[in-house]
Design brief:
This protein has 128 residues and is mainly alpha-helical.
Length: 128
């Protein structure tokens, strides 16, 4: 199954599901900070859109409230976003890495962890 493309609001809503688990539309809406909280109907529309995209699924109904849970993982959604970002750079990671270094957002610990992952990947490739 292809992962759905998610908007900023959809990602914010998904983040609530990933951190809290199954929720109703009201619980999702109330999870937003009071200042800047989207209207209930906006959250409701977005949740049903996420259900159509198969990012959420309805797991039960309590009275007139549907309870939803995430159908895709945070990791899968993040990978989709990163792939989309890399497509903007022709699939090249170097400009993204250069920016992360220049902005100070890439730490030495991040680099060491990436090197470790690259070594594992190289060992896996040679064993095939």
């Amino acid at each position: 199954m292809a992962l759905p493309k998610l908007t900023k609001l959809e990602l914010q809503i998904m983040e609530t599901f990933w951190s809290r688990g199954a929720c109703s539309v009201r619980e999702i809406q109330e999870a937003f900070p009071a200042s800047g909280r989207p209207a209930y109907t906006t959250v409701q529309t977005t949740v049903y859109r996420l259900e159509r995209k198969k990012a959420l699924r309805c797991v039960k109904r309590i009275s007139n409230a549907n309870i939803f849970e995430a159908s895709i993982s945070r990791n899968d959604a993040q990978r989709r976003l990163i792939d989309e970002l890399l497509m903007l750079f022709g699939g090249r990671a170097k400009p993204v890495m250069a920016h992360l270094i220049e902005s100070g957002k890439l730490t030495l610990e991040d680099v060491k962890e990436a090197e470790k992952d690259l070594r594992k990947l190289a060992r896996k490739d040679t064993s095939l």
